[in-house]
Amino acid sequence: MKEFIQSLPKVELHLHIEGTLEPELMFELAKRNDIHIPFNSITEVRHAYNFHNLQSFLDIYFQGANVLINEQDFFELTWAYLLRCKEDNVMHTEIFFDPQAHTERGISFDVVVNGIHGALVKATTELGITSELIMCFLRHLDEESAFKTLAQAQVHKDKIIAVGLDSTEVGNPAGKFERVFKLALEQGYLTVAHAGEEGSASNIHEALNLLKITRVDHGVRCTDDENLVKQLINDRTPLTVCPLSNLKLKVFEHMEQHNIVTLLRKGVCVTINSDDPAYFGGYMTDNFMAVNQALPMNKIEIAQFTFNAIEASFIANSEKQRLATATQGYLDQHQ
Ligand code: ADE
Ligand code: ZN
C-alpha cells in the first residue's frame, strides 16, 4: 500500500508555509541572518517538538518563524516544501501564510508575499505543481490588526485567493472577525477558518454562519453534534483534516480513535492534509500512511480523499476535471 499511497495524485488544502520550516533550514537561516535561537543542535530542536496542546506548539512555531527575514528566505522555505510535494505527487496545493507573524516583527508584507509567490510561480513551470495562496489572520491578535493586514494585501490581491483564521481557537471566537471577513468577502476573497480543532462543535457553526466559510479547517469536533454532521454531509462542506497534527496536539490520543475514516464513510467531504509537517513528523504521504495503518481502507476509499480535495479546492472546474481524470486513471491502473 505504501507505493500506492506514495504515487497517488494528491491535493493539499491545509498547509501553513511557516510550518514547513525544517530544523536544518532554521539553523541555516538563523546563522545567515544572525538571529539567536534557543537550540544548540538539530537534535535539540526535534526534542523540543513535544507538544501537549495547540498553544505549546504555537509558541515554538512563532519562535521558529523569527529566522525568516528576507524575500529569499521565504522563497527557499516555500521551494523546499514544493520539492517535498513533488516526492509525494501533490499536484495542487493551497497554502496558508501568516503575514502578522512577520509584520509584527517589522518584516514588510511585500517581502513575505513576494518570496512565497516567487517559489509558487517557479513550481508551476519547473515542477508542474499548481497552487493558491490563502492569507490567515492570527485570531489571538485584535480586529484592528486584521483590518490592517487586509489593507496591506490590497496590492497583492491577484496573488491571494482567500482569507483564513488560525492560531489560538479557544477564547478567540469567530465573531471577533465577523466584520473583517465581511469586508474580505466584499473585496472578492473566499473565506475559510480553523474551527473545531481544540474548540467545540459550536465553533464550527459560528464560523460557517458568521464568516461564510466555504471550507472548515480541521472541524473534527463536528462529531459532538449529530445534526452538524448531517448538515456537513448535505451541504458537502469540506473539512481539511490533519491527522498527524491532531495526534501531536492531543486532539486524539491514538490514531485508532481518529474519526476521519468514519466521516469519510458517512459521506462527509473530508480531506487529508499535513498542517505543519516540519513540526508534526510528516508530509502528505506520511499522513495518508498513518491513517491507513491505524484504520485500514481499500484503494477506492484512499483515493476518495483526493477526489474530495479536488472538489473542495479553489481551482476552475476544467482544472478539477483534469485532476479527477488523472486520479481516476491512476486508481483504474492499480485496482
Ligand atoms: N497555525 C499553524 N498551525 C495551526 C493549527 N494547527 N491550528 C491553529 N493555528 C495554526
Ligand atoms: Zn492549521
From TrEMBL:
Please report the stretch or stretches of sequence annotated as the Adenosine deaminase domain.
9-324
* Residues where substrate binds: D276
Q: What is its EC number?
A: 3.5.4.2
Known catalytic reactions: adenine + H2O + H(+) = hypoxanthine + NH4(+)
Cofactor entry: Zn(2+)
According to the UniProt entry, its GO molecular function terms are:
adenine deaminase activity; zinc ion binding
Quote the record's binding site residues for Zn(2+). Answer: H14, H16, H194, D275
Instruction: Identify the residue position(s) of the site Important for catalytic activity.
Output: H218
Keywords from the named record? Hydrolase, Metal-binding, Nucleotide metabolism, Zinc
Task: Give the GO biological process terms.
Answer: adenine catabolic process; hypoxanthine salvage; nucleotide metabolic process
A GO CC term attached to the entry: cytosol
InterPro entries in UniProt: A_deaminase_dom (IPR001365), ADE (IPR028892), Ado/ade_deaminase (IPR006330), Metal_Hydrolase (IPR032466)
Instruction: Report the PANTHER family cross-referenced here.
Output: ADENINE DEAMINASE (PTHR43114:SF6)
Q: Which NCBIfam families match?
A: aden_deam, PRK09358.1-6
Protein name per its UniProtKB record:
Adenine deaminase
Q: Which organism is it from?
A: Colwellia psychrerythraea (Vibrio psychroerythus)
